[in-house]
Amino acid sequence: MDVATLPITTLKGVGPKLKDKLEQRLGWRTVQDALFHLPFRYQDRTRLTPLGSLRPGQEALVTGKVELADVVFRGRRSLLCRVSDGTGHLTLRFFHFSGAQQQNLERGRSLRIFGEVRAGPAGPEMIHPEYEVLGADATPQAEASLTPVYPVTEGVHQLSVRKLVMQALDHYLTRLPELLPNELLVELKLPTLQEALLTVHRPPPRADVVELEQGRHPAQRRLVFEELLAHHLSLKHLRARLQEQMAPPLQGSGKLALALLGALPFALTAAQQKVLDEIRTDLARNHPMQRLVQGDVGSGKTIVAALAALAAVEDGFQVAIMAPTELLAEQHWRNFNHWLQPLGIEVAWLSGKLSARNRRNMLELISSGRAPVAVGTHALFQAEVEFAKLGLVVVDEQHRFGVHQRLLLREKGRRNGRVPHQLIMTATPIPRTLAQAFYADLDVSVIDELPPGRKPVDTVVLPDTRRAEVVARVHAACREGRQTYWVCPLIEESDLLQAEAATETAALLTAALPELRVALVHGRMKPAEKEAVMRAFKEGTTQLLVATTVIEVGVDVPNASLMIVENAERLGLSQLHQLRGRVGRGAAQSSCVLLYHAPLSENARARLSILRETNDGFEISRRDLEMRGPGEVLGTRQTGEQAFHIADLMRDQAMLPQIEHAAQLLQEKYPQHVTPLIRRWLGLRQHYGEV
């Protein structure tokens, strides 16, 4: 039987109780799962260290005879055991112990011990070390290889996991099929799968521990390659299935788009036009469009989406626009309403905060088809929402939604064997190689040009001890007829605390700047209140707007030319870049002042320096990825997508072109290996993109 289907109970010692724990807590169902449970660090137990040469902070393998073992009550009850080897002494300290353990550690017994040395009151000691009692005639032995340390969870101990993995290695490794063709292994100079797993689980004594712990050892590179290939093939598989489906061809006459373009106070940039042409080509086909549009803050993604929507509306189909937050969805609704209402197009609005009556009205508008465009949050794909004839789905800020969520919305439009087209937008610019890896199920378009006349924002980083200078700067900007944002973030993700901080700041600024009209907006205000405040700011009635980070995706105010961010050190690069993008939307030179509270961590200092150096969203995203990792930046921690065992997209992105080549080779010459490879690495998650 293939180890991929061999149940975990095949391993000795795995009874019903342990089986349940392994399955529920580690995801082990088969022997293969045990073989692919990879260490995250290593211990060197390949040499014995004399007790007399122990130093605090080192991990060491030692042997010694028990001189005494006693229970003491100094602050808390503990078992102390003193061992010696003729060169020195060592104290073993146990806070949790049994009577049997106490008896086991009787005087004269020989022990083999491993743990971290620390300085104790009576010399070197180890707290809760691993140990084993040696027989009277046993010769203490060091390990033949480095000792792996595995990810474990409550109720599943390190020793148990290690023993089970070693058992699987000894008895079943040779039954693991090689799924990468030999020609590929030779071309890329990769070891075989069995060699790689044996090395990763049992590295030889001379193996480079640093290289292993950084995931750069050749054996690990082989596993990384296979894992990335499996993910890539899975997404390509999803894409192929999507392309087998039918979608309504949407061409439209183009009259509505011309009318909208004629009403705009600006012309599309070349980059916007290029992306719009790519979208229109996709929409005209009878297979569903799956396109990701990425562009920096202010690059004009929303108007491109609106122009695409008109092709669907002209052909008698509906469009759904989904955003992850109430505020962003609200902004889209305002924009689409502003653009489309003059063209006679009703735009419905759906969110969790609507009253029951308004909700019923909106649901009726959508189900009857009287509203050709519907904007909302995830409320759009709830069961009670029915579309008359959904032809296009637009998802904003893709990284906040999982593949599963966006496909749920698409299923709303399944009719007569056809599904809607899908357009996905993100303001987190992702390097193309990573975008292709993360979104292999999507075509990628990039709006890499800002509208003409937009000048880079000057960014200044100052300590909050210079707040008085900043207040004077705000006063000067407002006297010149400009407007200012003052943002008050907090480290706690709490609307209440943020609101309090913003309220206090607004009161202080009102007192310090009595000539200015100061307003306040935060997440705890009612939508109507927020909208009224934002509208007053947009119309120029308010000069200084004090806000929490809710304005990260707020309305466009071209006259706002100064942005102050308090406690900027607490925010991530992408968030700071998004906030900074609120200014610089008019012709005037704009500035962003990042106030920080000293002392700064190295990480915070690096973030603020990057923002001072560049306005390029792609460069900022690249640096953000380096600092935080793709899971944080692309939201995969929240959505549960693309959780890698061993691969790291930032570290391993140089492999991505080879991955594409390997995927093509397997699909063309070795198609029988594709599904087993996906199943090996993704298991039950291989269908994460299916509804």
Task: Write structural notes for this entry.
This protein is an alpha/beta fold. Helices cover about 40% and strands about 20% of the residues. It has a 7-stranded mixed beta sheet, with no helix packed on it. Helix 10 (about 270-285) packs parallel to helix 11. The two termini are about 30 Å apart.
Write a concise keyword list for the protein shown above.
7-stranded parallel sheet; Rossmann fold; alpha/beta; 4 domains; 25 helices; globular; 7-stranded mixed sheet; disordered C terminus; 691 residues; OB fold (Dihydrolipoamide Acetyltransferase, E2P)
> What's the CATH architecture name of the largest domain?
3-Layer(aba) Sandwich
* Order of adjacent strands in the largest pleated sheet: 6-7-4-3-2-5-8
Q: How many structural domains can be distinguished in the coordinates?
A: 4
CATH superfamily of the largest domain: P-loop containing nucleotide triphosphate hydrolases
Which segments are poorly predicted (pLDDT under 50) over 5 or more consecutive residues?
635-641, 684-691
CATH fold label of the largest domain: Rossmann fold
> What does the main sheet amount to?
7 strands, mixed
Number of helices: 25
Write down the overall geometry: globular
